[in-house]
Amino acid sequence: MNDEKKPLDDTGKQALGTGAGAAAGAVAGAAVGAPGGPIGMAIGAIAGGVIGAGAGESMAATANVEDYRAHFQRDYTGAAYYRPGTAWDDYEPAYQFAFDQFEEYRGRPLAEVESDLRREWETERADRPERAEWAEARPAVAAGWEYLREGAVKAAARTP
């Protein structure tokens, strides 16, 4: 699973999560407020946007790149999918891929988005043939994805 080294970066992830959450919340709030007419829709959109922004920010905050990277770098050799003789550099591209794609798919369950992730992995692999095949990378991608989902669920539970 070798790949050229590209550092994990979460620049803008929190802003993206906040914005996406605000937009989704505004749409939902407007729909809920629709029975109240235009004023109800406006109030619902504002309230939904504020609530959605908080939820989106919480989700993005769970994706702290330093913690994420440290967790897997510390524990990857104990993973069921670890192959003796492989190194961190062999697994990092899969963990990074999960991190990079998680926000785009808004933290949906892996089972819902796996076919899309596989296509994206294979598209990226076309430019980097040294990258592992999906079947080999998938367990590390899945581990990264579930780590991020667990963090998002915990953060959402803390959000008032």
Structure explained in plain terms:
By secondary structure, the protein is mainly alpha-helical. The chain has one domain. The chain is 73% helix and 0% strand. The protein has six helices and no strands. The longest helix has 25 residues, at 37-61. The protein is globular and about 65 Å long. Mean pLDDT is 76; it is low at 2-26 and 52-60.
Strand-residue fraction?
under 5%
Termini separation: 41 Å
Cα shape: globular
Number of strands: 0
Which features does this protein show?
single chain, 160 residues, mainly alpha, 6 helices
In short:
With 160 residues, this protein is mainly α. The chain contains 6 helices and no strands. It has one domain (13-158).
List strands and helices in order, with pairings:
Elements: H1 13-33, H2 37-61, H3 65-75, H4 88-104, H5 110-127, H6 134-158
Helix pairs in contact: 1-2, 2-6, 3-4, 4-6, 5-6
